[in-house]
Inverse folding.
């Protein structure tokens, strides 16, 4: 008696490339689900000060 066929990959490569193999989409913002709100707030101000060089409207003593 002949052995049974266990696996074949025939036509799978063509089917995968039919619509193109896409890159994984990722966002530049981190996902903060389940993170302590204090850390989220601190991160907001840290990113804000990175953009402004640490200067805000409150520091206008000059």
């Amino acid at each position: 008696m002949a052995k049974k066929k266990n696996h074949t990959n025939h036509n799978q490569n063509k089917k995968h490339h039919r619509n193109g193999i896409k890159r994984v989409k990722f966002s530049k913002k981190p996902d903060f689900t389940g993170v302590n709100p204090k850390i989220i707030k601190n991160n907001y101000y840290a990113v804000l000060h990175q953009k402004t060089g640490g200067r805000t409207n409150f520091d206008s003593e000059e």
